[in-house]
Amino acid sequence: MENSRPSSKRFLDIVSDLRTIIKEEGAEIGDKLPSERVLAERLQVGRSTIREALRSLELLGLIETRRGEGTFLADYKKHQLVDILSAFIMQHPQSLRDVDRTCRIHEHAAIERIAGDAELRSLPVWDGFLRKIGECEPVVREDVLKEFLVAAGNRLSLKIWFLLKQYSRLPYQGILTAAEQECTVRMLSELKAGNSKSAIHHYDDWLELVNVEKRGENEC
Question: What's the CATH number where 37 sits?
Fold first, then answer.
């Protein structure tokens, strides 16, 4: 019988815990990781939650699953997209605007994908964010957007987004302000209701608030 705690932890929390375990154990490329059962017992969560977290890590190219053998630490450095993107930015500094726009494309697509799928829009993570906002707990901007990309399940889109955000001018690490929380609540409510156009509209409103704050900081 699985532990009843999985819904209390977001997938990204489990992903973070798994990466900590990998680091603490000094796992090297090609090393086999503990089984789902062992990880579930170690983190005290359900195996289904572990399975989703491992899937997220696999989408990022950090691990690979071999049927009948287990899960292994992958050589994520073999991906050349980082070098290509950094070279592009260095040669064309004005392309930072294109980076921001491309991030928005991936975020829009993720929101639309989730809103159009009953299973995805009913994930407990959305209620978790709404609860935190309702209880005045701090919510990091990146956490919300990252959950969108992870839930959407597009392997290539997720990898590209993780790389792009490193160059984006949007302050992803910032905490949602009161005004941003209002937009986020509307966005998540419309997402859960399956209204993709309205959810994206509120996402754009939220983004404008972030950009206003960023411009204000740059003027100081």
Answer: 1.10.10.10
